[in-house]
Amino acid sequence: xTTRAIEAKGGGGYASRIAPRAADLVxxxxxxxxxxxxxxxxxxxxxxxxxxxxGHLQAGERVLIWAGSSGVGSIAIQFAKYARCWVxxxxxxxxxxxxxRNLGADLVVxxxxxxxxxxxxxxxxxxxxxxxxxxxxxxxxxACLNDGRIVLIGNLGGQQATVDTQICRLKRxxxxxxxxxxxxxxxxxxxxQLVADKLIHPIIAxxxxxxxxxxxxxxxxxxxxxxxxxxxxx
Length: 234
Prior knowledge:
The chain is an alpha/beta fold and 234 residues long. It has a single domain (2-232), classed as Quinone Oxidoreductase, Chain A, domain 1 (Alpha-Beta Complex), CATH 3.90.180.10. The protein is 36% helix and 21% strand. The chain has 8 helices and 10 strands. It has helices at 34-54, 71-82, 94-102, 116-122, 137-143, 165-170, 185-196, 213-222, and strands spanning 2-3, 25-26, 62-65, 86-91, 107-110, 126-131, 144-152, 174-177, 204-209, 228-232. The strands form 3 sheets. The chain has a 6-stranded parallel β-sheet with strand order 5-4-3-6-7-8, with helices on both faces. Strands 1-2 form a two-stranded antiparallel ribbon. The chain has a two-stranded parallel sheet with strand order 9-10. Helix 4 (116-122) runs parallel beside helix 5 (137-143). The longest helix is centred in the first third of the chain and has 21 residues, at 34-54. It starts with a strand and ends with a strand. 41% of the residues are buried.
């Protein structure tokens, strides 16, 4: 069994012991390791909630997922491809871009070198945007087709954004606030089964002992990895 981390007081990520309610436990398939379950956990629940519960993504639609190398982004790419959608994402280096294409992304835009909104618009636009940066909200609006949806789930770039409300209004863009999301327990169990069946792969950049937590945070701050760092108790 693994607990739904969002239910744990304070998140529970650094706890050596935790006492969850039975109702908050999700069964781990035998084929899923503890490290895979941890890397799947809240990030996959958030990604699923963004794409399907709030975003109502349908097969054949087009989606832009910002920050594809993040924990949420890297698994959201896989979910969207599993749902038979066209997927664009963003990266800050050619190395990351290659890794994200290997995850299934159809288009990777280097946000340091290109205007993301224009690049996605030129590629045909998208029906849904998973907005993890927030300061890029105008680019997300630009990337959308008419009647597009934007799920605003993260503030990796900060909390303030200036947008052209005329463009947003005329394109009939629906901006949906995400907050701290989780999908249902049933969906979380379904996700773990997808991992067990090797259809979805949680990206573990590194597995490190809990004693090296400070180093793990430094690595995260460097923004050089794709996926998650898993801290392991001895």
